[in-house]
Design brief:
The chain is an alpha/beta fold. Helix content is about 20%, strand content about 20%.
């Protein structure tokens, strides 16, 4: 699997522009990749709710758990669904609103210098083989275009907001992801 990036967007991936984005601070380099996990409602997969949230049109009356999301303005650069489909919401050169209060290696406000990728999932349900393959392919494309994002600059939301966030959680297999990065396949 291979992705290319043109004009800061994945070629051949659906693009639904989120209103929840803005310019990065001038002179800020893109040098961190943050992996997240999300499901709406919690623990349920499929459906339009994640996209609706990122596009600012989530019907908060559609499920009782959506009430606290009323007025929330959040986005990610990309979402990778359980079947491996990738959707892009924010061009990579723009600031998506995915990290919130965050810090990495003494730098605060990780949205300023990171790319955020959401995986449809939970902290406890294993992510799918298709997601690992797609994530590895998207990561390789990102690294080709943003070479400051080296292997040691790929983190989970839990690493930049410890105590506040837990995703992608213990269900995310970092070794499997790294293996897919090297071999473009699932081994083991």
């Amino acid at each position: 699997m291979h992705f290319t990036i043109s004009n800061h967007r994945l070629v051949d991936a659906p693009f639904y522009p989120s209103p929840h984005q803005d310019e990065r601070p001038e002179g800020e380099s893109i040098d961190l990749l943050v992996i997240h996990g999300i499901s709406l409602p919690a623990g349920e997969f499929g459906g339009p709710h994640i996209t609706d949230l990122f596009l600012g049109c989530l019907d908060c009356a559609a499920h009782e758990s959506f009430k606290p999301l009323e007025g929330l303005r959040v986005s990610a650069h990309c979402l990778i669904r359980r079947n491996g489909e990738v959707i892009q919401y924010v061009p990579f050169d723009q600031r998506a609103w995915h990290a919130g209060v965050s810090e990495w290696q003494g730098r605060t406000g990780c949205n300023d210098f990171s790319i955020g990728i959401e995986l449809e999932g939970t902290d406890t349900a294993p992510y799918t083989e298709a997601q690992y393959k797609t994530l590895a392919a998207v990561t390789r494309a990102i690294q080709e275009n943003y070479p400051q994002i080296t292997a040691d600059r790929i983190v989970g939301h839990e690493h930049i907001a410890p105590g506040r966030k837990t995703d992608p959680g213990p269900a995310f297999d970092w070794q499997l992801y790294q293996s897919c990065m090297k071999h473009d396949t699932i081994t083991g």
